[in-house]
C-alpha cells in the first residue's frame, strides 16, 4: 500500500468513519457510567483476541448481569471465545472494584471527567487498571470520543505504518517509550497527508480487517 492507495481508501470510507465516530462520541455525551464501563470492559478482552469475539462476550455478560455483579468463576464461563479467559475474568472483577465509590457505585465517567485531557485519561487508565496498556487505553478512549490525538497501535496499524515507511520496523515488543515514539510519528504522518488521526486509524485497520468495527 502507498499513500495514493491510502487516500483513495479514505475517500471511500470517510462518510462511514465519520458516522462511526459520531456514534462513539454519543456514548460519552449521552451515556451513563454503565455505558462507559462496558466500553472499558470490552477493551480488557481485546488483547490477542478478535474484536468481534470480545464484543460478543461483553454483550452476553451484560445481558446476564454478570458483567456488573458476577464473580470470576461465573464470568469465565462466557470468555471461551477470547484468549487468556481466566486472567481476563479476574481483570473484569478488579476493574469494577477500581472504579467504584465507597457506596459501590461505578463512577468511571466522573473519574475521567476530572482528568481534563485524553492524555491524562490514558495515563490514569494505564496506571490504575490491570490488563490495560497504552493500546487498549487508546482504543477505549477512541471508542468514547476522545481519540483525536491517540494512536491504537495494534498489529494491523503497525503493519501498515511499516508499509508506508512511517516506521522502519515492526517492533517485537512495545514499551511505553516505543509506543509514544511511534504515536508521534503517526501524528506527524496524519498531518502530512491531511487525514485526521482518528480517521487514519480506521483506514489503516480497514486495509487488514476489511471492515469498520470498534
UniProtKB/TrEMBL annotation:
The record marks 214 as: Important for guanine/8-oxoguanine distinction. GO terms for biological process: base-excision repair. The active site is at 135, 154. SUPFAM superfamilies: DNA-glycosylase. One of its GO terms (molecular function) is class I DNA-(apurinic or apyrimidinic site) endonuclease activity. Catalyzes the excision of an oxidatively damaged form of guanine (7,8-dihydro-8-oxoguanine = 8-oxoG) from DNA. Also cleaves the DNA backbone at apurinic/apyrimidinic sites (AP sites). This is 8-oxoguanine DNA glycosylase/AP lyase. It comes from Hypnocyclicus thermotrophus.
